[in-house]
């Protein structure tokens, strides 16, 4: 009787995740042009319309911290763009990995685990969010949107904000078995109101007190405050740490939920 030896090999935790990143990169380097609008250019157009267009009618004052309106909304738009991109890339694309293209099923038929599939998604999302932030920050530089080197920390704040939205959305997508109709509702009734009423274009102190607490629950408000705090000031050091802690907590809670959902759906 002959002994058959396995030709497979164990894949380390990080190696398996990076193999997924390599797969994303293989696709991206061929189709990056189709994602250029969402990867940095969309928030730049918002900046041009609101900062240069509408902003030309807004005088610097106490509300803007003595800054021009362009400089006031520049860090907030970076955070808002990151949140929108994160929700978009963790909704239908994640559901597609389970339901339509089923590449998650194919990958987990190899030594790569569901946790590594999810880890690869997170790493790739962080890279994409950072790239989008760099593109936006570079283009906004020519608008005169930045007042100092804090722009480097703004990019980091945008990435953290996006990741705080990525994990809860991925958890929801992993638990979605229909065609994803709920995603359209989330974009319309959660993402867009969150963008408009989380301090992006005006302080939430201008909102009625009865609904102001909704802004406090929004990850984008914490991201906006964090981005402004590290770039133009106006937010105390302890407050900056508090906003960062909330975003990390949202990321951690979403990670736990999504990690479990990936295993429950991919392990037979």
Q: What does the main sheet amount to? A: none
How far the N terminus sits from the C terminus, by CA atoms, comes to 32 Å
Annotation field: number of helices: 11
The whole-angstrom Rg is 20 Å
SSE sequence, one letter per element: HHHHHHHHHHH
Residue ranges: pLDDT <50 for 5 or more in a row?
A: none
Q: What structural class do you assign from the helix and strand content?
A: mainly alpha
Residues in β-strands, percent: under 5%
Shape: globular
DSSP E strands, number: 0
Membrane topology: Multi-pass membrane protein
Protein name: Transport permease protein
Pfam families: ABC2_membrane
Transmembrane segments: 126-146, 152-173, 185-215, 235-258
Overview of the structural elements:
This protein has one domain (15-23, 39-48, 65-267). Helix 1 crosses helix 6 (114-141), helix 2 (37-53) runs parallel beside helix 6 (114-141) and helix 3 packs parallel to helix 7. 71% of the residues lie in helices and 0% in strands. The two termini are 32 Å apart. It is mainly α. The protein is built from 11 helices and no strands. The longest helix has 30 residues, at 237-266. One of its GO terms (cellular component) is ATP-binding cassette (ABC) transporter complex. Its main location: membrane. It is a multi-pass membrane protein. Belongs to the ABC-2 integral membrane protein family. GO terms for molecular function: ABC-type transporter activity.
Set down the secondary structure blueprint.
Layout: H1 13-31, H2 37-53, H3 69-89, H4 92-98, H5 103-107, H6 114-141, H7 151-174, H8 181-196, H9 209-217, H10 219-231, H11 237-266
